[in-house]
Amino acid sequence: MRCLYCDRNIDKQTIKSVFLKEDELCPECRRQLRVNRKILDFDGMKVETFFEYDGIFRSLLLQFKECHDEALKNVFLYDLSEYINIRYFGYKILFVPSSKAKLEQRGFNHLEEIFSEVRLKKADGLRMIEDGSQEGKNLEERRKMSTNYVYTGAPHKKILVVDDVVTTGSSLKGVYNCVKTSAGKVKVLSLAYKCFTLHY
Ligand SMILES: [Zn+2]
What domain range is 17 assigned to? Predict the structure, then answer.
């Protein structure tokens, strides 16, 4: 088997592979993609994140999203799926939707693929009101996007909002606010964060 990132041969006979499911990255790439769990606070909205949006994570996510390299879908949550299952037990996952144009262009929902090993039930009913992508927008314009979501799904006791990368936190905050009216508890998870958004 070859590493999906660097193409080096992976020696399957490592002790680790006996206990864990097979990693599709070599040990060196896995070391670079190390989990750096953080809880960010965006004006009272807590967001759990696992990776810095940089280096190998960024390359892998772009390759997965934009090059339709679906073989990569399990590398991100490789040893995190079980953690998520336990930590968010009883929550229903609500993915932050991509713009319609992006979704059509990709032909698949990358978040659904990445979280396919997570056993939590999925909720739906969230959509963007205005179909604008964040790309090419400045910070001020992004902040205004915070109200561009509407939730028309069923009310749930516990909802876990899931996104891939948190930047300003504004679009997540918009989702959080509109979902909050239909759920008892709302938690937020983003695979990665861009470091300049860190709030201390
Ligand atoms: Zn590698």
Answer: 1-32
Q: Ligand 1 center to residue 7 CA distance, Å?
A: 6
The reply to whether 6 and 71 lie within a common domain is no
Are residues 174 and 138 part of one domain? yes
The answer to whether residues 163 and 98 belong to one domain is yes
Instruction: Tell whether 16 and 47 lie within a shared domain.
Output: no
Spacing, Cα 192 to ligand 1 middle (Å): 20
What DSSP state is assigned to residue 7? -
Please tell me the distance between residue 50's alpha carbon and the centre of ligand 1 in angstroms: 20
Residue range 140-169, pLDDT digits in tens: 666 555 568 889 999 999 999 999 999 989
Look at the chain and report how many structural domains it folds into.
2
pTM value is 0.86
Contacts of 149 (CB under 8 A, 6+ apart): 96, 97, 126, 127, 128, 129, 171, 174, 175, 178
Condensed to tens digits (0 to 9), the pLDDT of residues 48-72 reads 999 999 999 999 999 999 888 888 9
What DSSP designation does 11 have? -
